[in-house]
Write a structure and sequence with these properties.
About 40% of the residues lie in helices and about 15% in strands. It is of the alpha/beta class and about 575 residues long. Among the domains are: about 160-280 and about 315-320, 3-Layer(aba) Sandwich (Rossmann fold), CATH 3.40.50; about 345-370, no CATH class; about 420-565, no CATH class.
């Protein structure tokens, strides 16, 4: 089943309460029951079942409740809810993916009130069980594909926020400018870990090199150990994992090799107190607890429930014994500037654009049938009908005197070049110099490696920010390309977020410095997968709107730019 990319989800439809209930106080004296109070009590009893009568089951993915990560955190949250609310809880572990459906069915047969699936790997089995049992409430962690079902609550997390923070730590603390990342398994809900980690590390340290590997397994510590060894061999001194039980192998190998490790999901410093410098906490326990609380209170709703740094869903680990004071201070500043702000750059740009379009009386919902990320933020709903055709304006064209040729067709003109051969050679030399004025072209002459590095530069800052002051020579303005908008490349689909971030980072740099940034592409580059490319370009345009409002950035065509800089 095709999953929606979590990275493009910019707003949640529901946020569950994470406030724990306090203990009950003993009454000072028993008040006599009145007729009205008795009736109210009866009505309340009929409205909602007693918490003690509720049963909540948890079905794990392949890691099990002792994976010291994802599943364990979910089970701890469920146990905490049982202690606070008095509900009956239980779990069933899955040894293979064939166990998902039978485990879910077992809880259905035992008449559990809420069944929680841990992880997107259970999405298909959860959908089948929910559709077959519409009177049973289900919840699933890290999946959005079941959000359309009326009896499924989808708990999602802004994993990129916590990963960004630990990436920032890694970027500051690496001594070799070389760090690693182990992904448990590729997927729409897992890629944000990598996006956030890379973005944070690069923002903290533009010179950092990031090694990445996919273990393709959440329960294989041996593979985690092997991948970590490879990273160390290639110079890494910090390794972050988002790999469940596979990550325990990452941490143990980091400890053996004497390098630093970063945990995930829970505070994993206890696994290796002198090795794990921090962890990207994904508070699955809080999400599970809040979901059970909503069940007890009778407020549980189907659909999306998003947990982020503002509602206790994600954060950096509280254990900070191995972090220098300046790193802790820098991370706290980043949390305020980048993750806790009420309105993101894209959201602000979308709001400005929406207000502008509303003031101009333009209906942006009628432009197209698909809904882009930008339009979703702006409040546009999907249109099932074709966009209405625009009425052509009746333009009255005043008669003008027909322009006559300024040259004599019968005259034999002698064509003389503007530049001498020496000047043309010098211009060609300078153009070639500008095209090759970066370390990749200077240092790398082996063409296959050159092409590989140029590809990597699309996602990572290998050749700088690309902003420049246009040069004017003999009245000609030289507007060189800063960045090509590379079309979608399926084998590297998981890096699309980094591609867009690279472009935005360069735009911001140019806007702040008052430089020119020239993003270019060929028409045929966006002639396939048009919807996807248009969505990405709209995101870039929305970001430009923000740069315009913040720094006064201007959008100029070639003619306008030539006119501006020639003066």
């Amino acid at each position: 089943m095709k999953k929606k990319l979590l990275a493009v989800l910019m707003a949640a439809t529901m946020v569950l309460s994470l406030v724990a209930c306090g203990g009950k106080e003993e009454p000072a004296a028993e008040a006599p029951a009145t007729e009205s109070t008795g009736e109210a009590a009866e009505e309340a009893e009929e409205a909602a079942p007693a918490a003690a009568d509720l049963k909540v089951g948890l079905v794990t993915d392949l890691g099990g409740v002792e994976d010291q990560s994802f599943n364990q955190s979910a089970w701890e949250g469920l146990q905490r809810a049982a202690a606070d609310f008095g509900v009956e809880v239980n779990y069933l572990s899955s040894s293979t993916d064939a166990d998902y459906a039978p485990n879910l069915e077992t809880f259905v047969d035992e008449e559990y009130d809420l069944i929680i699936s841990v992880g997107f790997l259970l999405a298909d089995a959860t959908r089948a069980a929910a559709e077959a049992n519409p009177d049973v409430s289900f919840a699933i962690i890290d999946d959005t594909t079941c959000a359309d079902l009326p009896n499924v609550t989808c708990m999602t997390f802004k994993a990129e926020q916590s990963s960004y923070l630990v990436g920032y730590v890694a970027g500051m603390m690496t001594e070799k400018n070389n760090i690693g990342f182990v992904l448990g398994m590729a997927g729409d809900n897992m890629h944000p870990f990598g996006y956030g980690y890379c973005a944070g590390a690069i923002d903290a340290n533009p010179d950092v090199e990031i090694q990445m590997a996919n273990a393709n397994n959440f329960g294989d510590p041996a593979t985690g150990s092997t991948l970590t060894t490879n990273f160390v061999t290639n110079g890494a001194d910090i390794v972050f994992h988002a790999a469940g039980a596979t990550g325990t192998g990452v941490i143990s190998e980091a400890q053996a090799k004497g390098i630093m490790a970063i945990g995930v999901d829970s505070d994993q410093s206890y696994l290796a107190p002198e090795t794990v410098i921090t962890s990207a906490m994904k508070r699955v326990d809080n999400a599970v607890y809040g979901t059970v609380e909503a069940l007890v209170n009778g407020t549980l709703e189907a659909g999306l429930a998003t947990f982020d740094i503002n509602n206790g869903g994600v954060d950096i680990a509280p254990t900070q014994d191995l972090l220098p004071e300046e790193v802790i201070k820098a991370v706290e500043e980043v949390k305020v500037e980048e993750t806790v702000k009420e309105e993101t750059d894209l959201e602000r740009a979308a709001r400005i654009a929406k207000e502008k379009k509303a003031s101009e009386g333009i209906d942006i919902a009628s432009k197209q049938e698909y809904v882009s990320k930008f339009e979703s933020i702006a409040g546009v709903t999907k249109q099932q009908t074709p966009a209405p055709k625009k009425k052509k304006k009746q333009v009255v064209v005043e008669e003008e005197e027909v322009r006559k040729p300024t040259f004599d067709l019968k005259k034999d003109y002698e064509m003389k070049p503007i530049y001498s051969e020496e000047e043309l050679e010098e211009i060609a030399r300078r153009e070639e110099e500008e095209r090759e004025n970066d370390w990749i072209h200077e240092k790398i002459k082996f063409r296959p490696l050159l092409r590989l590095l140029r590809l990597a530069d699309v996602y990572l800052p290998l050749t700088g920010q690309g902003g420049y002051e246009p040069k004017v020579e003999n009245g000609i303005v030289n507007l060189v390309g800063s960045r090509m908008y590379k079309p979608f490349f399926k084998p590297l689909a998981f890096l699309e977020g980094l591609k867009l971030r690279r472009i935005k980072h360069q735009m911001r740099h140019a806007a702040k410095k008052g430089l020119t940034f020239h993003l270019w592409w060929h028409p045929h580059n966006v002639g396939v997968r048009t919807d996807l490319h248009m969505k990405q370009l709209e995101e870039i345009f929305a970001y430009y709107e923000n740069m315009k409002e913040t720094y006064g950035m201007q959008s100029l065509n070639m003619g306008e730019a030539a006119e501006k800089y020639s003066k």
